[in-house]
Amino acid sequence: MRKTKAEAARTRQSLLDGALRCFDKQGIAGSTLDDIARAARVTKGALYWHFTGKGAILRAVRDAVTLPILDRADVTLLHERCEDPLERIEAFLAAMLHSLEKDRAVRTALSVMQFKCEFAGELEAELDGARVNTRRLVEGFFRAYTMARRKGLLAAGLTPRVAAAETMMFMSGLMRMWLLDPTSKGLRRDARAAIRAHVASKRALNGVRAAAA
């Protein structure tokens, strides 16, 4: 009997959830398609109906996390009504941190991709997707910093391109260090203050926030 779209969607989600559990426990290299099918409680045939292999599964796990982040970046960095582009950047970084704190699936998926994935062999091609997503985020930051410069809010001597690169590096480092920190008493405790300090360092001395301070 043919499955309905809803049933197929549930099976696919079960496979992604099972894969994420396997990846988190055994690493990606140590997880087999049989392991993933067992964890999802489906047949291997059902797995192949949805995915061509482990690379496709990893891609789907990554997209489930990164696409909402990229969509949020488009909205927050470029289209939010807030007139201050630097406040938009701060809001985006704060929302990213909130996702890490509140969403276990996001934490697990990012941790797997950061620490439990060897991008070699059949998974090497997945680096291309990571590069595309990184460029899209950098472009969003660049456009926001360009708006800040037009409004006279960007620090003197700082170009939007360099500011965007710095913020991308800051965000990547923040996420990695936050995931490595096992308690709320270390780096996690100071993450929000670090975000505020990072964005403040990009603001002109006569910027809105500086004047208010």
From TrEMBL:
Keywords: DNA-binding, Repressor, Transcription, Transcription regulation. The keyword Transcription regulation applies. Residues 32-51 bind DNA. Residues 9-69 form the HTH tetR-type domain. InterPro entries: DNA-bd_HTH_TetR-type_CS, Homeodomain-like_sf, HTH-type_TetR-like_transc_reg, HTH_TetR, Tet_transcr_reg_TetR-rel_C_sf, Tscrpt_reg_MAATS_C. It comes from the Bacteria. Coiled coil: none annotated. GO terms for molecular function: DNA-binding transcription factor activity; transcription cis-regulatory region binding. This is HTH-type transcriptional regulator AcrR. It comes from Usitatibacter rugosus. The gene is acrR_1.
